[in-house]
Amino acid sequence: MTLVDPSHPLSKLLQEDRRYKLDAYLFILEALSYAHDQMGMGEEPPTEDLEPGLGEQSSKPIAKSGRIRKKRVERHLSGQQLSEAARIYALEQYGYMARTVLGSWGIKKTADFGEIVFNMIEIGQMRKTRKDKREDFHDAYDFAQAFTNDYRITFPANSPNTKNG
Questions:
Q1: In this structure, is residue 94 part of a structural domain?
Q2: For the CA atoms of the chain, what is the radius of gyration?
């Protein structure tokens, strides 16, 4: 298990809510990043829709030229979108073992993604809009179906396991 600085809000959260391991929280943050960066998911919510929290900070980085660059746009995913991104990311990272790995961290259904996200919102590490609720993550898909029945092993075109002809 990765250690957390005792002064970090996540450290206190892990002590108070023992349902999920640190790796579960880190996975959700990675899945969110994956959704934005690799899948191009998310849209910019109206500023007045966002509730306080840290989430993806908008900033005004300075370019090498000394000019202020455009601030990074804060993008938002729905519970359904983040659940789907988490599924794809887990399969990419852990393959056929994805369901087992997630289960070892306390994640057994999509509602667990919502619990983790809302725990992170409560400690200021993620943000939400006024429309977001835990229930948005409930039953996004069936874990057995999504991680077992839908998983397909694929071989590269030049693999010895690929039939020619």
A1: yes
A2: 18
C-alpha dihedral, 96 to 102 to 107 to 109, nearest 10°: -10
Q: Is residue 48 situated within a structural domain?
A: no
The domain total for the chain is 1
pLDDT tens digits for 93-117?
999 899 999 999 999 999 999 999 9
Q: Which domain holds residue 92?
A: 9-38+74-149
Asked whether residue 79 is assigned to any structural domain, the reply reads yes
Cβ distance 144 to 99 under 8 Å? yes
DSSP the chain: -----TTSHHHHHHHH-TTS-HHHHHHHHHHHHHHHHTT---BPPPGGGBPSS-SS----PBPTTSPBPPPPPP-B--HHHHHHHHHHHHHHHHGGGHHHHHHHTT--SHHHHHHHHHHHHHTTSS--BTT--GGGGTTSS-HHIIIIIT------TT-TTSPP-
* 165 within domain boundaries: no
Is 141 in contact with 35 (CB distance < 8 Å)? no
> How many whole angstroms from its chain centre is CA 39?
12
Angle subtended at Cα 90 by Cα 41 and Cα 155, rounded to the nearest 5 degrees:
105
**Residue 49, pLDDT above cutoff 80:** no
Instruction: Give the C-alpha separation, 20 to 71, whole Å.
Output: 34
